[in-house]
Write a structure and sequence with these properties.
Elements lengths: L1 H56 L2 H11 L59
């Protein structure tokens, strides 16, 4: 009986210490959060002060004076070269004997030999046997 009572008291003591440790961690976290918020507020105030100083110093007359003091302005980088439009249709179709261009010839059926035109790529696939 004494052992059971001692075990219960010991378990409650451990449980109480754990609860106190968790409360302490929660208070510490809340304190760190409050400090972080104060630092952020202080940084925001400094930022607004700097913005106000910049706004006081930059008025149209001061900007005009700074631009004339800088001299003639030139681009920092050269413009890119013009891009040629891609050829969408390929080379012109061959002319027929009657002088017309007609339409582009269709591909022959597989296994039928044909003459390769200048604008057709060479076949990289072997002919079927």
């Amino acid at each position: 009986m004494f052992a059971k009572l001692a075990a219960i008291i010991l378990a409650l003591g451990i449980l109480g210490c754990t609860l106190l440790a968790m409360r302490q961690q929660r208070l510490q976290a809340a304190h760190e959060l409050a400090e972080a918020q104060l630092r952020i507020r202080k940084s925001d105030e400094q930022l607004w002060l700097l913005r106000a100083q910049i706004a006081r110093r930059l008025n149209p007359e001061n900007i005009r004076d700074m631009a004339t003091d800088a001299g003639p302005l030139r681009p920092a980088a050269s413009p890119p070269p013009p891009v040629e439009p891609p050829e969408l249709m390929g080379p012109p179709a061959p002319k027929h004997a009657d002088g017309g261009t007609g339409s582009r010839p269709s591909r022959p059926a597989p296994g039928v030999p044909h003459e390769r035109l200048a604008h057709e790529p060479e076949s990289t696939h072997p002919e079927p046997r």
